[in-house]
Amino acid sequence: MTLTNTGPAVELIDSFAAGHDKLWQGLGECGTWWSGADRVAAVAEGRQALCCELCRTRSEVLSPMMVPGEHDSISNLSAPAIDLIHRLATDPGRLSRKWASQIIDSMTEEAYVELVTVNCIQYVIDSFSRCLGLPLRELPQAGEGIPSRIRPDGVGDVGAWVSQSLDKSLANVSRAASLVPDTESLWRELVQMHYSRGPEFADLVWDRALSRPQVELLASTVSALNECFY
Amino acid sequence: MTNGDLLVRYAESAVRGDSDLPSVRKEVELAVGTHGLIEAAATVSAFEGLNRLADATGIQLDAGLADESADFRTALGLDGYSGAASTTSQGSPGRAGDVMGIFR
Fold it and tell me: pLDDT digit string (tens) for A195-215?
């Protein structure tokens, strides 16, 4: 894509680029439950999912579990982790509690949520590039360190598939990744950058290049295409 | 809504990875400017992620949203989505006094 204007648009794209650079590198850092190397592997696997023949075949049938097989994977992550990453990328609207429970049993719910959050961040940043016809980023550098495996306080069963913050003042979508606060902070920053942008989110009239109704039309169209009930 | 149809086409092409995405992108840029195109890309990509996080964690619809949408969810076919099973309360139809307050 060639930007046809200068000035504010270039500043905006530079702002996104700088923000994405920081968050992208954050994906490669050692997490709470996954090492930096594993997180980079997950990012790579998330991209690979879009080329996976099993995922493509499953997307065309009534129930994805009707099609057995192995994913076309490129990492040494466990089979459940690869299944999670691939299905998250290619068929998120048909994930089930039963399936999630099986994955969680293989890795713990904390590790599950961190892996989901890492790959959601990856998907957003890559999707932004695809939307604008920009090249995808090189994989982040894997950071050193050993995961602390510390579970935060104040989390528990709130009716979701995984434990989340018990703070009822938060909307459910705002606490979806609260089981892994360090990785969640990257996610929050990304959503703020792309969509909510602080207190102005509560306003129905936005001072942006697109009106609020236009933005919400895009949001609801994407959500309908992904069959996201929430 | 101004450029509504075009923005829907852009979202569709982007989410589906359609071959016409470059040409639709160009149309969007001509219609809403480069700044608008960037905002559109930011929104589409954000919700690609938000949808996935919601679906993978099985979050329930907040009570206020369940009430607010109870009367049109069925009409729009939303209750047929796989993710609908995560929400246990169907809600009572009614307009919430402050829907945006759910997200503060």
Answer: 988 887 877 778 889 999 999
Interval A134-142 mean pLDDT: 96
Question: What's the whole-number mean pLDDT along residues B31-50?
Answer: 97
* CA separation for the pair A189, B98 (Å, rounded): 25
Distance CA A1, CA A135 (A): 9
Interface test with A, best of B8, B19, B48, B86 (most A CBs within 10 A): B48
Among A29-43, A91-105, A169-183, B70-84, which is the least confidently predicted range?
A: B70-84
Do the chains contact at A171 and B56, CB–CB below 8 Å? no
Distance from CA of B83 to the nearest CA of A (A): 5
Subunit contact B51:A117, Cβ cutoff 8 A: no
Using an 8 Å CB-CB cutoff, list chain A residues near B27. none
Write out pLDDT tens, residues B66-79: 666 666 667 777 76
**DSSP assignment letter at A197:** -
pTM of the model as a whole: 0.91
Closest by CA position to A35, among listed A79, A77, A85: A77
Q: What whole-number distance in Å separates Cα of residue A144 and Cα of residue A29?
A: 7
How far apart are the C-alpha atoms of A201 and A169, rounded to whole Å? 17
Element (H, E) at A164: strand A164-165
DSSP code at position A155: E
| CB atoms near residue A182 (< 10 Å) | 17
Strand partners, A165: A155
Residue with tokens 């104040």: A154
Residues of A in contact with B39 (CB under 8 A): 12, 208-210, 215
Secondary element (H or E) of residue A18: helix A8-28
pLDDT in tens, B45-96: 999 999 999 999 998 777 666 666 666 667 777 767 666 666 655 555 555 5
